Structures are given as C-alpha cells and as structure tokens.
Amino acid sequence: MQRFFLYFIFASIILPANAQKDSFPSLNNMLEEVVVTSTRTENKLGNVAVPVKIISKATIQQAGSLRLKDILQEQAGLFITNGFGAGVQMQGLNPDYTLILLNGEPMIGRTAGVLDINRISVGNIKKIEIVKGPSSSLYGSEAMAGVINIITDNSYKKNLEAALRYGFGNPDKGWSWPLSNNTFKNTDFNLQGAATIHKTGLQFSSNTYYLDGISYRPFSTERLPQPQYRISNQIQLNHPFSEKTTLSFLIRHSLDYFKQEFSVNNNGTIIKSFGREANNDLNINPVLTHQFNKNIKSSLRLYGTLYDGNQRLNFDNKPDSSYIDQFRQNFYRIENQTDIVLKKSRLTVGGGYTVDQARSTRYDNISNTKQNNIIYGFVQHEWNPTSRVALISGFRYDYNRLFAAAFSPKLAVRIKANNNLSFNASIGRGFKAPDFRQLYLNFTNNAAGGYSVLGSIDAVKVITQLQSIGQIAEIKNDFNRLSSLKPEFSTGINIGASYYLKNNFSLTLNLFRNDIEELIDSRQVATRTNGSQIFSYINIKNAYTQGAEIEANWQPMKSIQISSGYQLLMSADKEELTKIKNGNVYVRDPNGISRLIKKNEYVGLPNRSMHMFNLKLTYETPSHFFATTRFIYRSRWTVADSDGNSVHNIQDEHANGFLLINVSAGKELKNGLHINAGIDNLLNYQDANFMPNLQGRMIYIGVRYKLI
Amino acid sequence: MKRTIILTGLVSLTFFSACKKENVTVQKDPFPFETITDGKITTVKNLPADTVVGFDGIGRPIGAGIYSFYSLETNTWVPNKDSATTKWDLAFAGTTIRVNNQTSGPGNGGAYVYTGTFESLTSIPNDAIFAVDNHPLTYAIPKGSGAGWYNYDGPSNLVTAIPGKILVVRTASGKYAKVEILNYYRGGVTPSATAPTELKIKEQRFYTFRFTYQPDGSTSF
What we know:
The structure holds 2 protein chains of 2 kinds.
Chain A: H1 2-11, H2 27-32, E1 34-35, E2 43-44, E3 52-56, H3 57-62, H4 68-72, E4 78-81, E5 87-90, E6 98-102, E7 105-106, E8 125-132, H5 136-139, E9 146-152, E10 159-169, E11 184-197, E12 200-211, E13 228-240, E14 245-266, E15 269-293, E16 296-315, E17 318-342, E18 345-360, E19 370-386, E20 389-400, E21 406-416, E22 421-432, H6 436-440, E23 442-444, E24 452-454, H7 456-468, E25 472-475, E26 488-501, E27 505-528, E28 533-557, E29 560-573, H8 574-581, E30 586-588, E31 594-596, E32 611-620, E33 625-634, E34 637-638, E35 654-655, E36 658-668, E37 673-680, E38 698-706
Parallel strand pairs in A: 6-9, 24-28
Antiparallel strand pairs in A: 1-2, 3-8, 4-5, 6-7, 8-9, 10-11, 10-38, 11-12, 12-13, 13-14, 14-15, 15-16, 16-17, 17-18, 18-19, 19-20, 20-21, 21-22, 22-26, 23-24, 25-27, 26-27, 27-28, 28-29, 29-32, 30-31, 32-33, 33-36, 34-35, 36-37, 37-38
Chain B: H1 2-17, E1 22-26, E2 33-38, E3 41-48, E4 52-55, E5 61-63, E6 68-71, E7 76-78, E8 90-93, E9 96-99, E10 110-115, E11 150-153, E12 158-161, E13 165-170, E14 176-185, H2 197-202, E15 204-214
Antiparallel strand pairs in B: 1-2, 2-3, 3-15, 4-5, 6-7, 6-8, 8-9, 10-13, 11-12, 13-14, 14-15
C-alpha cells in the first residue's frame, strides 16, 4: 500500500525520461482558444478584455472529476460554499450572484440562492468558461460576480465511449479499508456517443453516479453526504437545412435522489425522521441559426427548463403524517441575437422575453403559482481601432412586472503593448433581481422558538392580518421598508495585465473591486405576542469585495507543466465599517471583558477565505501517460457572529483553513483503452461542522474505452 | 471543553497571584456559583437564572419561573422568600433582568443601559434617566434581541451578551452600581453555532457578570 501511495506523489514530480513528440499543449495555444461567454460571440482568449478562465476536457479528465464541484474547487478564486448544496463564491460574492449557464442558457432551481453544482455531471463537458466581473450587460440578472458557462460536447463525428469509475474510502479508518463499517463507495458510469445520419448530427450522453452516505459525526445516524443517486441524460441534434441555416436541439434530464435520515430535536425530545428527496431537472433548447450574408448572422433561441424538488420525511413518533417540501420552478425564454460584422468592428444586438414561475410548499400555498415576466434587450459593440486595441461597450435593459427595471452598462478595453504583454480594464454594472423566496417565502420554524421568515410581499399581508387579530406585539422600524423590494446592484472594476514569455511561461494579474448596493438581507420586522420573531427581506446593505488574483503557468520542459493561482480577498459591509470607524463596536477579550474593536480585527463579510491558493503539477508524456498533483488551500473563514456585536471579527467562530491534496495518474493504451487512478483528499482532511459534504480520502480507479 | 479548562486555569492562576482577591463558591443545589472580588470589581460566575425545565407550545425553552435574586450591596444570592423585600437589587430569570422597584419589588431600584466599556463609565451623568419595571410589559433593562444587553439569533438558537453594553443600576436602597453581563452560558462560554440543540438548552441561563458597587451613595465609580 505504501508503495502505491508514494507512486502517486512522485509520479507527478519525477522528471521524464522519454519526452519526444510535439503533441503537448503549449501555452501559446492557450491564447488561440476560442471563448464565447465573455462577449456572446466567438473570440480568441488572447483578445478578450475581461478575466476569463477556460477549463478544458483534458483538465477535467486528468483530475478525475465527476461532478462540477470537483473541478471548480480546484480553481483559484472560486470558493465552494457549504449549505444548500455546493455553491460557487466568485470574487467574494455569494453563490446567488454567479450565473450558471448550460450551453449559454441559465440553470435554475436555486435553494436559498445556491445552485448546487453537484447537480451537474462533467462526463460530457467539452469545456467550462468562467468569466469574472459583472456580465449583466449581456446576461441580465445573477451575472453580478460573473458567469460559469458549461459547454457540452458538440462533435457529431461517429464515436462511442464508455467510462467507469469506482472509488472508495473510509473517513475514520485511515488506510485500513476497505470493508469496515464506515466504508463508503462511489460509482460513476458514463456513456456517450455521436453519429451523423443524412446530415443530421446526433450526440448523446448518459451518466449514472452513486455515492454511499458517510457519517462523520460520531454517535449520529445522520449521514452527510447523504446516500445519493444521480442520473443525467442528454441528447443533442444538429440539422443543417442549408449551408446558411442550422437547427440544433438539446434535451437534458437529470434526477438526483437522496436517502435521508435525520434526528430533530423538537421540544426537547429527539425525533428520528427518514425519507427521501428527489430533484428533477429538465432543459429543452432549440436554436435556429441563419447566416444572412458573410457579415450578418442571427440566431433564434428557445429555452424551457423545469426544476422540481421534492422531499418527504416520515417521523418515528408520528407514523401517519409526513413532512413534505416541494419546490417547482418553470422558466421559458425566447431570444434573438444578431451579430453584424462591420469594418473594424462587430455589433451584437439581441432581445428576449422570459417567463419565470415557481410554486412551493415554502410559500403560502403550493397551488398558487408565482410568476414574473421579463422583457429585455441588449447591444454590444466590439471595436478594434488598431490591431493592438480592442474596445468593447454595451448595455442591457431588463424590464419586469414585479420590481424596478435594471440598466446594466459595461465598458472594456484591451491593449497589447507588445507580443508578450497586454493590459485590460473593464467596468460594468451587475444586478440580481429579488428571487421568489425573497418575495414569497412563508416559513415558520416550529422546532426552534417559532421564528418566521416571510417574503417581502407576503410579510406585509401576513403581519397586517396578524395585527388585526391582535397577534403582533411590536412592529419594528424595518417593517416600513418592506413595501418595494428593489434589485441588488453592483459596480465592478477589473484591471489586469498578462505577460507571456517564450511559449512556456505566463503570468496574469487581475485586480478587482465590486461595490454592491441595495443588498437584500433578512431583518426582524415584527414580534408576535408570544415573543417569537418575524423576519423578512429588505434592501439594506451596502458592501464591497476587493482583491487581487494572480495566475502563473510555467512549462519548464515539454512534459512538465506547473500552474498556480492565488487570490487575496477583502470585503466589508459599509455600514459596519462606518460604525467601527465611529467607535461604536465592541469586542470581548479572552476573559469576556468588553473593549473597543480594532479596525484590523474586523473581517468583513463572513464565509470568505482571505487567501486562496492552488497549485497543480502535471507530468505528461507523448506516450499518453499523465500524472498530476493538485494542492488546494483555503484560509480560515468566519462562520458566525458568536460575540453578539453584530459584526464579524477575528474573535468570532471560524472554520479552520485547510489543505486538500488530490493526485491522479493515467495511461492511454493502444487499443482505445484508457486507465486512470487517483486519490482525492490524500490528507483525509475533514471538518464535520463547517464542511459536512467534504468526503474523506477517496481512492479510485477508472477505465475509459472507445468502442467506436 | 478544552477552552473552559484553560479559562478556569487562567482565573485560578490570577487568583493565586493577586492578593486582594477573594474567592467564594456558593453551593446552591444543584448548581454552584462562584464570586471573585478583585479590588472594586466583583465577578459572579455561573449564576443560574431559572434554568430550563421544559418547552412551551411553540418550542421555546421555559424554566420553573423561579428568579435568582442577587444583592449587589452584599454580593450575595438572596433566597426566594425575601423576594418582597429590599434585600435584593437584581433578579434574573432567562434573559429577563428585573430591578427592585414598582411592579418588581418594594425598593428604590432602577436601571438604564450604557453603551461603552465598563472602565469608561467613571461616573453617572446628572441627567441620566433610570427606568423602572412595568412587569410584564416593559422593563428598566429592555427585553428583546438587540434592545438591551443581548442578541438572540433564531437560526443558531443562541443568546449572546452584546459587548459594550453596561447596565447602570440603582440598587434597592438607592445606591449605584455598574454591571457588565459577560455570558449567558455555563462556564462563561457560548456554545458553537453548530452545537446540538440539547447542549444549547442545557447550558443556557447561567449568568457570568461583573460589577462595581459604590457603597457611599455617590454616582462615581
């Protein structure tokens, strides 16, 4: 076993003996890669004026990733949040503010603002494009911190490939696996293929994933991660009517199924509950593209998506009744985008109409569908006055039924100083519309003091009604701010430079600042006569996040690539900062005695690592052998205001910083067979309280076979 | 647990090295509490305040309704039978703290909440207004999250004493004291937000506070 383990560590460090051919990815090729997300038009990465990161299929496969979370957590500057699944925090903004696109169309079905990126299998992903900085000028709501666009395989060349991966681990037994009590197993099967029949391209992929439940908490029956099955299927068709007109059609369905077992403390007695959660996700996306002439191209996109979350729990003390949580969201969109090539510039104009609907047991009534309609238009102008300068300007206007309209302009510039050095700067406005939860939630926690959280529209109604029957003891001042919830706005600035040297070294620096206004936060708006609190959502906070991101890639020899990234992040709630500056905030020393807070004790917004560091070492031979070691470091983050001073400071409860090390190696054999193996979380790092979904060490082996 | 031991260790260390200190442990079955006097400042640790015996209809913890009466003047716990006398200055039950006046007792008590550090309050301003209890509607030391001395966070189900909140107290006999609530949980350590609910319930309603009492009746400390 020891030797097996050492092999993985050293496989990626040992120098190559037989580097020969020129079939390696070189850094120079990187600049030639095509990006679509940053401008909604095809652009070479080397010409893009905003921070963009591309994750290739090879990177995903070498890392042995199965779910989107596995690969995104290995990217510097992305922090994976815990709670309501795995969310992505980008540039220090919560998961609510990153738009997640599947082939350019938004994924829906967020819980408490979090879109669980474990929902997405990476088996059929061609590449992932990550655009940082506000992108609402093209994408509208949610694209405030940035956009993650998942682009699935779209080659229609005849092929058929099957991949199987089996992994196992034991969180508390160290290496003495596999068959003791708490051993968990993980199986993933992926099948995909493509063919072209009478000009019509057909592409399909199918993924099945199973993970055992694991119990990290001693003496607890609760298993986190929960035992889970995830199945997703996708079919894509492409039919060219002529050289100029193409129709494509995508349908994807995924089902995530969890077995659940909880212990809930209700009025002092422990109640065991057991049940299941099933989440269905359906996406349908026909796109008609027509090239009018060599300068004008237009596409008509239709998109319909549905997310249905359904949880049912039974309690051992009440066998006849069950707890049911249902959430269903439907989202329909029609959109046109036209690209016009002009002399030295390119114009993109588009517009669309969206219908967004949701109904849930979390709202007042499951049968009562909530709906918002949005109409929008956008314009973008890409101008190259000289070959060294690119100037991109654009805006988008979103008008809707429920709250104020949003105007989102953006301006970006890229200047190539010489062949090695280029600078880019951008400023843009992002927004996030209030979601259905913030408008309509109707939640009362009967297990813990009976506090309620009400959406802003329902809060006024419910509290007024309670007041008329004498159930409200006190109305807080914040109640008067409830009437009209506005979108949250941000202004984001990114300034960066990229330096490339001799095809084997690159250094990218980006400085960012996001000023967020009208942040929506829950506040107590009333108190019931029985003393329990009623919370609702109001536009109340102003905050900022700022920092620097550095990325370096170095290929000291053809077979070795070293890439690393670092992000420094600072953030603050502006009101809190003012209170601290005015000397109105106190902390306690270790003996519990109050004193004034020092400015450097303030940590700003909670749940953020100040330092994030990633390092990846890759060794690759022309004979198709690879080995990688990846280091992922996140510094400590504050989790709660445990000293009650209403701000987050270094004395507050925090999760410890951690280091994950993932290793993998693989080899492609001559007959189309590819084998790989690896260890995720080599150090077996665990944090049951703050990262309950982080698995302990997992060892896996996989095979991939090209049938056709 | 480890933190509690370290904390206790620190306290006993300072206790042995400071000569002016007086350490008294009062056995009040089943919960002992402790008082430490160091010069003008007295710290009372783990004073039980109507500890939880059950839950009300909406799941909130309730006690037996028995207040812990405390005399700042004599630095002693006052038995329940003396609740209708001027022997006590503050009465604790759950997050409610009452003063000995009006609807709460026959004394001349009163209080208000001062924002600042304990040390920075060297004298009570002449225009300071001492409020009195109007049980069960209002209290001299306001009840409610963020209103007086504590914050209550529903989702984590924790009560935290707000740093920088000092209770300025007029005692039953009309003298003055300043009181800083340090913690609401046994051992003087607030449980983790992720701690089990049972623990948060069992360990709450144990006050740790410190006070300075001015026996000469003046308003300076």
